[in-house]
Amino acid sequence: MKTLFYILGGAVLVVFATWAYRVNYETQDAVGRVNDLTRQIAREREAIGVLRAEWAYLNRPDRLRELAELYFPDLQLMPLSPEHFGEPVTVAYPIEDLADAIEANMELSE
Fold it and tell me: What distance in Å separates the CA atoms of residue 15 and residue 13, rounded to the nearest whole number?
């Protein structure tokens, strides 16, 4: 009977050791993936910073003014003035659903 307990104990020990070994390597793999993703996120953030700097550089007012003057014969871009802007009440905003449209019509008819 003792021998049976030793064999069962050894089998349980082997099963748990195998399970622990597998969990350990799965954890190391997950940590590696997290580290890879962290590095990728850092690279993407750096690229976003570079793109923002390039965008700011390309949108300098003096550069845009020079480009507008250079390409005036082709584009005929005119400088903006306050007369180019409309009043907010003249903008036709879309009504999102039929219930709002019906309610708006009822208010207008009253």
Answer: 5
The residue-averaged pLDDT of 32-42 equals: 97
Give the tens place of pLDDT for each residue, 55-104: 999 999 899 888 888 888 888 877 777 777 888 777 776 666 656 666 76
- Cβ–Cβ < 8 Å for 102, 95: no
DSSP secondary structure letters along the chain: -HHHHHHHHHHHHHHHHHHHHHHHHHHHHHHHHHHHHHHHHHHHHHHHHHHHHHHHHHT-HHHHHHHHHHTHHHH------GGG---GGG--PPP-SHHHHHHHHHHHH-
